[in-house]
């Protein structure tokens, strides 16, 4: 965990006071709604279809048990007893009354939690791998760099009124769990031949109505230059990004229009002027931030304890273990994913009781720490392997042990027409129906890894372009229709899905997905070939033939 | 409209001259658009008055360099408060082009942006609302903590944090 110091706390208090003053000026009429809107957005307050929504930042997806418990409290007292974890490692409360907002914010502020820069045309919450600090795959803990960027970007005077929102993601492992190739800036931490730590810098990725995979503009940037390089990118974008059309204002459009090479040249020219200036990170500064991350006091434990061996004889535990537990960098410890996708429930939702339960389990078994992943699941990154059987029993009792992580029912979906003012179609009920069709665990295990992503409109908050199966809700003559794409992926091999065929009606979607899966089972070269690999090998045509023949 | 310079309400010495109709006033400092500045370059030179230039926010600020020696004031424009191009222009003008003279924010200039304007290098502000002018002091002191360095000389946390180490404070209320 990163430990807030007196500066962070003072800033947060000042920000809360600033927003309270802005709300008062809005109520008195001193601020028009037009003037107030960007200010409330930059504090995480949206006006949705039915109510105000409060979006809370979970920097780089890391939460303490006390913070999660406080979110449960907010869900219970000010909302309808639940919260929604988003694809950007944030949490949203959908039913908060305007008059309760300041108090809800104050309650969250007491545990160092806030909604700063979770919306608005500024640098948003920096996201990273939910396994940061725990996975043996990583070159360094990416949260160090996410925290340095969090501080740098917080209320940045030059970059608070950008052409459009700006999202940065970092991965420190070759296996990309942070979707860095579909962010405005993706940073890939690695070591060069001399063992020096640096970033590959990708720009101009993004989804929405004009999806692009990010382009690499620098293969290796020594870590000490990360802030000056980001400042150069932001400065080029702030001056030359389009402001005449909101749909063309993201950096991806600028990069696309002038070309990645010209963009890179502009950045390098700007960077040459500032790289050796005040933003250069010394070892002292990096070490100071690093020292504020406290790691668990890991004990020397056996990697295959007797407790685990015994528990694996229970097939239900064994199923969960194989699905939801991953290797930790410290022997005797494990990374546990908690599926927030029980069959038939809205993806990413957690009730207040479940949040409390997870917080209690984190206290008992996981050094008080919880992570949120962009797949809308939770994670306990540091669990002693010998405690897994007991943890599983308690997760199971709380309805949090569905062993469907990375299965077809582990669906990413936006809130859709049930909540969102922008949506054209429902997303959550589609996800619920699909997960019901594949509720049989033997069946879904037989299918293997398969990511389904659902967006209720072309803004693509459900990342449908990068779903192995992508589902996009559109409106046609007042009816909900859905376009299906195949072959998208958000990992280190990121690519956009290919349209399968004509859009289908709401009622047809679950059946169509079943047909796609049946086609895959028929077409795959062996049970080892994943869905995404079959689509890659054969293209969408054989799927199209089989699926539309039956509809 | 009120003019605030370095935190104080002051008289504006400059007369803003529109692009058309008005003739250049004799012997008072003028503030003109780039169009007019270029059109009447010679007249402005021979009039021997102080000249302020409103640089458009869609033109690279580096191009102002040749004119700087002849200017007594540079103004940067915020067509709406949501258009933040002039923040980058201001920093480049101060930190790259070395402009030491007055730098004025004009347009849709509102109190919730006063502080970031100052941090970007503006020392003159023309608030769009009278009430905002009265709240200048309050707006400038709403924050004491600044995470990132700019050219404004304020101490940033990047440096201020040095020399201290983390202390274990448990998990209550301290972490994020």
UniProtKB/TrEMBL annotation, chain A:
Alphabetized UniProt keyword annotations: 4Fe-4S, Heme, Iron, Iron-sulfur, Metal-binding, Oxidoreductase
Domain of life per record: Bacteria
MF-aspect GO terms: sulfite reductase (ferredoxin) activity
Domain Nitrite/Sulfite reductase ferredoxin-like intervals: 52-110, 344-398
Domain Nitrite/sulphite reductase 4Fe-4S: 119-272, 408-547
Gene3D superfamilies reported for this sequence: 3.90.480.20, Sulfite Reductase Hemoprotein, domain 1 (3.30.413.10)
EC code: 1.8.7.1
Annotated SUPFAM superfamilies: Nitrite and sulphite reductase 4Fe-4S domain-like, Nitrite/Sulfite reductase N-terminal domain-like
KW Metal-binding (keyword) present: yes
Family assignment from sequence similarity: Belongs to the nitrite and sulfite reductase 4Fe-4S domain family.
The name this protein goes by in its record: Nitrite/sulfite reductase
Organism for this UniProt entry: Ancylobacter oerskovii
TrEMBL record, chain B:
Organism superkingdom: Bacteria
Name this protein carries in UniProt: DUF934 domain-containing protein
